[in-house]
Amino acid sequence: MSDNPLFKRTIHKHEVPSVLLPEGSRTVRVYLPPGFQQWISYPVVYCQDGEEFFNFGRIATHAQRLILEEDWEPFIVVGVDVNVKLRTSEYAPDGERYSLYTRFFAEELIPWVESHYPVRDVPEQRLLAGDSLGGAVSLSLAIAYPDMFSRILSLSGAYYGPYMEQIRQAASLEYLKLWMIVGLQEREYATDRGTFDFVALNRDAVQLLEEKGAIVRYTEKDGEHKWGFWQQVLPEALGAFLGPVQDRI
């Protein structure tokens, strides 16, 4: 089994320095595709909740298989870790650390990655991915930095009131393409902000996004608000942006 190329994944761990974050740095994990060459430029997926995307979403394993077995164009994955205790504070627009985190992401993380790895630096080749609050803050970033981000992968996004207000206040979102999914068993999910119907949250977000001109591929499937569900749908989600051309949004 150890000779199987699917298991020979290259993942680097770094501390990205920051003058914005009180801690002075943030841990990231970087998956490099098979056959990686420094002189080739690659599409890149930036994941909120980076540790969980790698450990529970198995995104590096998915990527390796899709590139080797499905002949996808190679791509790089950057997972940005978060302290669970500070997650809502960083990801929610009304959180104390939200402005610091989103500025760090756009102004420090992206330049650091692009100076260390040959990732493509245009919005169409940068995919923002996140689950729950991570999906919602990915959309937040794309609204705040339209010249940087235009592709969103949202797994059961937690589109609470402050996020919906950001969408409402946006002039136009015609530059955005989103792949969104929610599980049908997420109608009464308890969070640190109360119990929410995530199906309703996502339906309302999709309607508002489309009214603003965004292109949305939206799916509802049997599933709960957990990684067991999201891990299964990740290949389809990635395929909407990185798979065969005919499958893309």
UniProtKB/TrEMBL annotation:
InterPro entries: AB_hydrolase_fold (IPR029058), Esterase-like (IPR000801), Mycobacterial_A85_antigen (IPR050583). It comes from the Bacteria. Gene3D superfamilies: alpha/beta hydrolase (3.40.50.1820). This is Esterase family protein. It comes from Cohnella terricola.
